[in-house]
Design a protein that fits this description.
single chain; 338 residues; alpha+beta; QueA-like; Thrombin, subunit H; 2 domains; nine-stranded mixed beta sheet; 29% strand
């Protein structure tokens, strides 16, 4: 059931609709979503941009090494003063490499400065320009592990939303609920009097982190950088005050919005790391409707949608999706929770 390739057209995907008030479901073409958006509502999108985070280099012995970049490390003062570009990243095979070892990318080398544990390393580029050059030349699209193939040229475009902002590069996994939107579809949304509002959350590798504890309350969500600009917060506050409803595109957008403080009815802008873990019992204060793809078992995202629509309803809907041969996960079909 796992989609290994995207649909030929973004909006050619299917949409399962689950009405929380009645429990009823239906399956439609994705464009059917327009029927539920009304004048005065808000459609909130995540404008983060995925970069080619997977790098394949070699040790001095010639052995292949993968470096999966996560995020820049801006707090290493001595490295920054010398013009170096330190990153946090996974290294595979982690056990075989050593601290202070250099990984080769043709004529360039990258320093494995410090073992951070758990397969994570402090990876240091000689300069920001060298970092950009190596990512551009040697980087691969970070397709999820359940897509059992190597990345292809089309993935550079399709493992990315059409509204990804070139000034907001930082995600190592895509906000996949946004894949289904095309420019004509977004124009149709605007024509209905719906305001499209931009937020940003740089999706990290923790999005695929499985829940391994018996009690879901003991699970810990990895922090990720999120930004809700002042303009977006003001627009959302105004829309909510006038009775408009908020459609969040993706669980990343939900976690961004729900991480914002609400003071006397006013949604507050913010920028920083967030680690909000939404589970059953959580009271949503901003999001009214959720557009999302199907999620992995034993994941915090499946727990989030269960908090939004109820665990038993989610499991019944997933069973119906399987029977209806819907496509699952990143390149798969979508759900709309009303």
């Amino acid at each position: 059931m796992i989609a290994q390739f995207p649909t030929r057209r973004r909006d050619a995907s299917r949409l399962m609709i689950l009405d929380r008030s009645t429990g009823k479901t239906g399956i439609f073409p994705f464009r059917h979503i327009l029927q539920y958006l009304k004048k005065g509502d808000a459609l909130v999108i995540n404008t983060t941009k995925v970069f080619k985070a997977r790098l394949f280099g070699r040790r001095a012995t010639g052995a292949k090494v993968e470096i999966f970049l996560i995020r820049p490390v801006g707090s290493i003062d001595d490295a920054n003063k010398r013009g170096l570009a330190p990153w946090e990243g996974f290294v595979n095979p982690s056990r075989r490499v050593k601290e202070s070892e250099r990984i080769e990318f043709d004529s360039s080398t990258v320093l494995l400065r410090k073992d951070l544990g758990g397969g994570k390393w402090e990876v240091v580029f000689d300069s920001q320009s060298q970092c950009d050059r190596i990512i551009s030349r040697f980087g691969h699209v970070p397709l999820p592990h359940y897509i059992k193939r190597e990345d292809q040229p089309r993935d550079i475009r399709r493992y990315q939303t059409i509204f990804a902002d070139k000034n907001k590069v930082g995600a190592v996994a895509a906000p996949t609920a946004g894949f289904h939107f095309t420019r004509p579809l977004l124009r149709a949304v605007k024509q209905r009097g719906v305001k499209i509002i931009e937020a940003c959350l740089h999706v990290g590798p923790g999005t695929f982190k499985p829940v391994k504890v018996d009690n879901i309350n003991d699970h810990v969500v990895d922090p990720e950088f999120a930004d809700l600009p002042t303009k977006a917060a003001l627009s959302l506050s105004e829309i909510k005050a006038k009775g408009g409803e908020v459609f969040a595109v993706g669980t990343t957008t939900v976690r961004t919005l729900e991480s914002a403080k609400v003071i006397r009815g006013e949604i507050q802008p913010f920028s920083g790391m967030v680690d909000l873990y939404i589970r059953p019992g959580y009271e949503f204060k901003i999001v009214d409707h959720l557009i999302t793809n199907f999620h992995l078992p034993k994941s915090s995202l499946l727990i989030l949608v269960s908090a939004f629509a109820g665990r038993e309803r989610i499991l019944r809907a997933y069973e119906e999706a399987i029977q209806s041969r819907l496509r699952f996960y990143s390149y798969g079909d979508a759900m709309l929770f009303l």
